[in-house]
Design goal:
With 698 residues, the protein is α+β, with helices and mostly antiparallel strands. It contains 20 helices and 23 strands.
Length: 698
């Protein structure tokens, strides 16, 4: 009788699994560190060697001091993908002998992380009172037309060389890195990921992970630790979710910097956890009580450390404003931990699992954003079996248990916002400043005064009347039109700029013919404003063309402010060229807004003003147009800067960055606020750096 038919996997299946199951290098390293935790290790060190070089000397080494593996475990478990060894331990409640840990892994696929990092792997491991086992894998051998069973993996035993004496553990060395050289931004991102593996609030005392760079470099300079940042939070909200009840303690600690307000604390016990569909945050049709016990989720502990990012408050409460903002921008969010070890990737920039960003759209001042909070949610592994981790290692399966868990955390966040807002309002009232003026209309009124004073009403008055009537008409139409936010912003900003230009010309005493020409141009612009309500056809344009045109448009301002332009295309090592399909007028307007902003802030520098215009692929391997300067840089968080009417300019409208942000969203790209070291720039450009980042070229 012939043998039954069976699956005969090709060797390259191993490579496909690694590519599909592990998204990036950060998750790959994260998986290896989790393996160290499951192995009862107390430390796990990730070493990056020669990582800035594009040659074979670049390595990633992950070493722990856990229990290690003997030959039978290597051949019978580690080399058997999909083994249920960890799952059986977890289901049986079997804990590790030394630190009584339940295993975090259960799918038996975490080892594919090594393939995501590099093409060659050397594993050295030793169990107690055993020989060392050495495993050598060349992943290139799996990319041939062979069956999996035909590709040998070299496994040998030897006398201890790495783990001598009574030492045990595992060391994994990865060569032939797929990504090389690594960028400073990549290394700093990995550092943040490794440092977030253990909870900053309730980390297990028995385990720590760290990142080392060899040879030493300054790539990690300026990165604050979680402990240093937590001390600067002025609002804290801690408590538990148990069954259908929420209990919490809230503290407001303004510190000595905010002398006009007093500290406060409040608490609440046994508040019923509900999902309320009336706020638009749930798709459920009616309010209901959540009971986590019914979802096999035991007590959930949480701690939200909330920051007030209003510039004046930061100056009064933080010892390192720039460092704090950078840390929160890169690490802010609410993270989930089981037994003190992180469940990836909740809280990462690409995973707003609680929709904190979406909730802030309509009422940003009342809601907490990801870069305003360092939050932890603590679970016990043996009492949260209703939450099942996905095979791809990125969070929980989105079943009913997960949805109720998420909604319960959202309920807690609402209470935190309510408590925070009471004290936030007290701060705002205590430190209130002058009310902002109404945009555009007051500019027109000021222009009228100047025109009247210079006896130009006869020539310019009719244009100003026409402009004001047309503007009010367009404004009213846009205000009542659904989804007109960007259009309204463009109208306001463009009209304001033209009015300012005409006002300056009047104040300078320009020729009457010049003033009439400018006024007519402004009037014609308002006349033709209806194009904003109609879509225009996209066109393909080179990045260099956009940059050159922007330089030409602002040439007179560069000369006036004595600003030196550094064009990335004219350097000895020129920036890359790319083409983008876009609405040319909108992208040009966005680019000119970024330059306009830079020109203003460069004006605060007495001399040596420089502006960089170029392109880059460095940030996310996506094409982008880069605008950087050597001015003072930003002191406000990006989430505020892209909101309309937010500005630190005495007479600014606060719409330039908002418009650029909205334009890039329309083009499926984004406006990125860069941190130092994210991209390569000439050394002198230490101020603001922004990127119009487009989707990858097809």
């Amino acid at each position: 009788m012939p043998p039954p038919n069976t699956f005969r996997p090709r060797a390259r299946l191993m490579l496909l699994l690694g590519d599909q199951l592990i998204r990036d290098a950060g998750i790959a390293v994260f998986e290896l560190v989790k393996n160290a935790y499951d192995a009862d290790a107390t430390t796990c060190k990730v070493t990056l060697k020669e990582i800035d070089k594009n040659d074979e000397t670049a390595q990633v080494i992950v070493q722990d001091n856990g229990c290690g593996m003997d030959l039978s475990t290597v051949t019978g478990v580690w080399l058997e993908p999909g083994t249920e060894n960890r799952k059986k331990q977890k289901d049986a409640g079997q804990r590790t002998p030394k630190f009584t840990r339940l295993p975090l892994g259960e799918k038996g696929v975490g080892r594919f992380a090594v393939h995501k990092l590099g093409g060659k792997v050397r594993l050295v491991t030793r169990a107690k009172d055993k020989q060392e086992v050495v495993v050598t894998i060349d992943w290139s051998a799996f990319d041939k037309d062979k069956y999996l069973s035909q590709v040998p993996v070299k496994v040998v035993e030897r006398d201890p060389v790495v783990f001598k004496g009574r030492r045990t553990g595992t060391r994994i060395t990865i060569d032939a890195l797929h990504e090389r050289p690594w960028t400073r931004a990549r290394v700093r991102s990995l550092y943040r990921a490794i440092n977030s593996i253990c909870s900053p609030v309730h980390a297990p005392d028995s385990f720590s992970a760290e990142l080392l760079i060899e040879p030493e470099s300054n790539w990690l300079e300026g990165l604050l630790t979680a402990d240093e940042v937590l001390k600067q939070a002025i609002f804290t909200f801690e408590g538990t979710l148990s069954g259908s009840q929420l209990s919490y303690d809230y503290h407001f600690r303004p510190g000595p910097g905010l002398k006009r307000v007093t500290a406060d604390k409040r608490k609440q016990e046994n508040l019923t956890i509900t999902v309320d569909s009336s706020d638009g945050e749930s798709k459920r049709k009616e309010s209901r009580v959540i009971n986590l016990n019914q979802r096999k989720i035991g007590e959930v502990k949480f701690a939200f450390h909330i920051f007030d990012r209003e510039p004046r408050v930061l100056q009064l409460t933080s010892t390192d404003v720039a460092g704090l903002k950078t840390y929160l921008d890169n690490n802010g969010g609410i993270f989930v931990y089981r037994d003190g070890v992180r469940v990836y990737d909740y809280g990462e920039p690409g995973n707003d699992w609680l929709d904190l960003g979406g909730r802030r759209i309509n009422v940003p001042a009342k809601r907490i954003g990801n870069n305003q909070v360092l939050g932890t949610v603590q679970l016990s592994l043996d009492s949260s079996q209703g939450l099942v981790e996905k095979t791809n290692r990125e969070g929980f399966v989105e079943n009913d248990a997960y949805r109720d868990f998420r909604d319960a955390i959202r309920f807690a966040i609402k209470q935190a916002e309510h408590e925070r807002n009471l004290d936030k309002d007290r701060i705002r009232k205590a430190y209130a400043e002058n009310k902002d003026k109404e945009p555009v209309l007051e500019e027109i009124a000021q222009l009228r005064e100047e025109v009247k004073e210079r006896e130009l009403e006869k020539d310019l008055g009719k244009y100003l009347d026409r402009i004001e009537v047309q503007y009010k008409d367009v404004l009213n139409r846009l205000l009542v039109a659904a989804g007109a936010g960007l259009n309204l912003s463009v109208v306001l900003h463009e009209v304001e700029k033209r009015i300012a230009d005409l006002l300056q010309a009047v104040e300078r005493g320009d020729k009457q013919s010049t003033l009439i020409e400018k006024a007519k141009h402004l009037s014609d612009m308002v006349d033709g404003i209806t194009w904003l309500t109609r879509s225009s056809g996209p066109t393909v344009v080179k990045a260099s063309t956009l940059i050159s045109q922007a330089e030409l448009n602002w040439k007179f301002r560069f000369q006036h402010h004595e600003i030196k332009i550094v064009n990335g295309f004219t350097l000895d090592d020129p920036d890359p060229e790319f083409s983008v399909k876009c609405n040319r007028r909108l992208i040009m307007g966005a680019l000119m807004n970024l330059i306009d902003n830079a020109i203003y802030w460069l004006g605060t520098h007495a001399s040596g003003r420089k502006l960089y215009l170029g392109t880059t692929y460095e940030l996310n391997n996506k094409p982008g147009i880069l605008v950087a300067d050597n001015g003072p840089g930003f002191i406000d968080p990006p989430e505020y800067l892209v909101e309309p009417f937010v500005t630190r300019k005495p007479d600014g409208m606060g719409l330039g960055l908002h418009i650029a942000h909205e334009v890039m969203k329309q083009h499926k790209g984004r406006l990125a606020f860069l941190s130092k070291g994210d991209v390569t720039l000439p050394r002198e450009f230490t101020g603001a750096a922004l990127l119009l980042e487009f989707p990858k070229e097809s």
